[in-house]
Structure formats: structure tokens, C-alpha cells
Amino acid sequence: HFEAINENLQGAMPLEIVLEADRAEAFAEPESLRIIESLQEWLGRQPEVGGSTSLVDHVKLINRAFHAGDADHFAIPANARLTRQLLLFGANDAIEHLVDQRYRTTRVEVRSNAPDSKDMAALVDRIEEHLETLPSQLEARVTGNTVLLTRSIDAVSEGQISTLSVAFLFIYGILVLLFTSFRVGLVALIPNVLPVLLYFGVLGVTGISLNTTTGLFGCIILGIAVDDTIHLLTCFNVAARECVDEKSGAVRALCAVGRPVTVTTVALCLGFLALTTSELRGQVEFGMLGAFILACAWAVDVTFTPALCAGTRIVTLWDALTYDLGKDPQESIPILRGMSKAQARIAALMTRVDTFAAGAPVFRAGEPGDEILVVVDGELVVSLVRDGRHIELARAVRGDIVGEVALYEGRRTADVDAVSDVRVLRLNKANLMRLRNRYPRIGSRLFWNLSEILAGRLAKLTGKVG
User: Fold this and answer.
1) 103, 24 in Cβ contact below 8 A?
2) Which stretches of 123-229 are assigned E, i.e. beta strand?
3) Cα(319)–Cα(180) distance, integer angstroms
4) Does position 20 have pLDDT exceeding 90, yes or no?
5) Would you say residue 306 has pLDDT above 80?
6) Cα(410)–Cα(433) distance, integer angstroms
7) What gap in Å lies between CA 247 and CA 311, rounded to an integer?
């Protein structure tokens, strides 16, 4: 129907050119009317213009009618007096619609067949550029609902980059605060960016225009995607600690979150698909795009996001604030010395926490191992078996480390048992490297403290030998 109107009625997209003179009765004079006539002739040469109507057309019609329909008089009268008389005798509602009572302000109705806002904007720019060439006694501007709508659509389109960038920046800031890491925040942002990029990619491939309707969907996708992503990541954070393994934690998180995310996505997709029954093309496109992109966002959340989780140890702000390492761990646990309380908790959360009941064996001499144990609570006893007797070498309490030889040699050199209920941090090469990569400042401080502790033990041992 839109195309039929464009073809048969000179265009379905109306716009108006308003002209204002510097004095009254200006548009009752042939000179001003000839300027409008010239403007209409120029408009007629524009490919997006199907036709135009102005006061000039009515004056020509009245002039011809007063001369018995003679085609030679379908023209602007030669003098102002005749023009005013014709306007007086031929006054009607249509003329009053085009010019004010003082003949100082008039308008030209333009019918455009521009297919989209881009072509309409180009036409408006050309008209405004041409209006600059009019005599100085006339001021002109382009207006109308179509022009205002076109400019609104362009503002929406041009604002996509800036608004989405600001949204991504704020979401990234929230993710950084939530996961206490710039890098983890960036990783968590990726599953939220992908569906939005896919959406605009689909618009480009299919040729669907970016308008006031389709322009809204980028924000909708972002809101839904970030909600599901944070839900999955926080669930993974808990599950990974319970399983003491990132891959197992990712599987458990997906099992827990996958069903509700899937059900809500199906419901949303069905809701958007309902729009495809509309007779309006814009609503059909919006419904199809909505359902497709939401399904893709769901696919990202159940495939790509768990894959990221499987190789990522996440520490949330809540973990860092609530994890219990006892009083002043940065002072009472030497390996955490020089850190803030939050940094000490992050370092601990990036490792593995284990507990042992009183009397339980921790490890035995000769066993393979690559971990250092840092005592958080309780007491451990380190011993060796010689001639069937246990020889106690040392006792480890809060802040002490045991098993440092195995970290480098891969094998235990002594027996370690729990004297009381014990809670320890297990630091192996994998989580130490992860801490260094994820939190470089915390990692460098921990490595320095570890080197200082080992150097102190070596110096102490050297002193005993001497």
C-alpha cells in the first residue's frame, strides 16, 4: 500500500517548506510568487520528490478560470493588483491553509517518495542547502512530521554507539566491582557483548533498517543477557568452591541455572513471535529479530559462558568482604603480609581451602604432591619415621607453611598430621600462576612473601649447620 501511494499519489511521505517574508502582503506580489515557482521547479527535479503544492498553484488556477480556461493564462499574473484581486475573488479554505491572512508567511507542501530515513534526510539536507540561495528578504525552513520523525530516527541510529558504549561501560564497572578484577570483569562482559554485536550484524546482513522500533532492541538484549550471565557466573563461583574444580563447578552451575534460563528464554521468544502475526512489517521484523537474538543469547549463555567459567576462578566482592581468615590475616599470616584485608581474602579465595579433623593425617613422606599448606586455624605436627619411631621436627600454627619442598620437587619429605581441627590454604603451581595472571599486584606480593619465608628458613638452617 505504501508503494502504491508512492507511485500513484506522488509520494506517501509529506514534508513542508515554510517561507516567511520581511513584510506583509509580500506573497500577494508576483515577484515573491515567482520565487516560490522557481523553488517548486527545482523540487520537481529532485528524484525523491513526486510533487509539490503551494499558493502559486492556486493563483494560476484562479487566473486561468477567470480567462475562460485559456491554458496560456495558467501563469502568475503580471502585476500585484491583479494578483490581489484574484486572491480576493478566489479565496477558499485551501488557500487559507497555505498562507496567513497578512500574506507574510506561506508554505509549500512537498510529497516525497523517499523509501527510508536515510534518503529522506539526504533530501532535506539538499532542500535546506538550496533554501540558502533564496533572496535575503525571505527566510525558509523545512519542517513537518516526516522531517521530525526522520531526525528522531537518525538520532536513535546515531545514538546507538554512544548509548550502548555508555551502557557497556557502566556494566563493566559493575562487573569489576562484583568480581574484584578488571580482567575478570572484561571476561564476564564478553557474553553480554556477543548477542548485541550479532543483532546489529543480522540487521546489516538482512537489510532490515535501524529505526525507532529495531533501535530499541539492543538495550533489551543487553539487559536480558547481563542478567543471565551474572546469574550463571555467581552460581559457578559457589559451585567451583564446593567442587574444588572449575570444570565441575561450570557443569554444576549450568545444571542449576540452565533450566530457569531456558524456560524464561522460551517464554520471551514466544512472546516476540506473537508479533509476527501483525500486519505491520515493522512489528513482524521486531518480533522475528527479538526471538532469534534471544535464542542466540541463550546459546551463548549455555555454551560460551560455561567454557569461560571452566578456565576462570572468580572471586566476587561479597566473597572478598565476607570470607573469614581470622583477625588481621595480613599481619598474622606472613605469606599475606603487606596486603589489605580484601587483597588477603582474594589471595585465599584464589587458592583451595581444606579442613582436617584432629588426629587426621594430612600427607605422608614419599607421597607425590605439589602444594604448600598455609595454616589458617589449628595446629599441625611435622615428623619423620626413623627406626620405627616418629621424630617430631616442628609444629605449625596460624601463619606457618608446610610442604614447600614438594612445591618444587613434587614429592613429600615428611609426615604431617593434624593436632587439632585445622583449616589450611593449599597453594599449588596452578593456582599461584592463576593468581599472578588474574591479580598481578596481589600475586607479586605473595611470591615476594613466599621467597622471603623460604630465604629465612634457609638462613636459619645454615646457621644451625654452622
Assistant:
1) yes
2) 138-143
3) 10
4) yes
5) yes
6) 16
7) 7
Of the CA atoms within 13 Å of residue 59, those in its CB half-sphere come to: 26
pLDDT tens readout for residues 336-391:
888 888 788 778 877 777 889 999 999 888 888 888 898 988 999 988 888 778 78
Rounded to 10 degrees, the C-alpha dihedral 63/64/65/68 comes to 130
Closest CA to 15 of 135, 126, 134, 155: 126
C-alpha cell at 158: 546515531
The residue count of the chain comes to 466
As a whole number, the mean pLDDT across the chain is 84
Between the alpha carbon of residue 161 and those of residues 40, 48, 168, 169, the distances in Å are: 38, 29, 10, 12
Side-chain half-sphere exposure of 157, counting CA atoms within 13 A: 15
Q: What is the reported pTM?
A: 0.54
Taking residue 259's Cβ as centre, other Cβ atoms within 10 Å add up to 10
| Rg of the chain taking only CA atoms, in angstroms | 39
3-class secondary structure, 208: coil
User: CA 271, CA 290: separation in Å to the nearest integer?
Assistant: 9
Q: What is the largest CA-CA distance in the chain?
A: 137
- Output the nine-digit C-alpha cell for 208: 532490515
pLDDT-derived band at 187, boundaries 50, 70, 90: confident
User: In the numeric block, which cell numbers belong to residue 356?
Assistant: 582436617
Mean pLDDT calculated for residue range 270-297: 88
pLDDT of 320 higher than 60 = no
How open is the CA angle 440-445-451, to the nearest 5 degrees?
A: 125
Where is pLDDT greater, at 275 or 463?
275
User: Are the beta carbons of 325 and 343 closer than 8 angstroms?
Assistant: no
Q: How far apart are CA 448 and CA 435, in angstroms?
A: 13
Residues 6+ apart with CB under 8 A from 37: 56, 76
What's the rounded Cα separation, in Å, for the pair 459 and 133?
Answer: 91
* Strand, helix or coil for residue 355: strand
Q: Which residue has the cell 523553488?
A: 39
Q: What is the pLDDT of residues 247-268, one digit of tens each?
A: 787 888 888 888 898 999 999 9
pLDDT digits (tens, 9 = 90+) for 43-65: 999 988 988 999 999 999 999 99
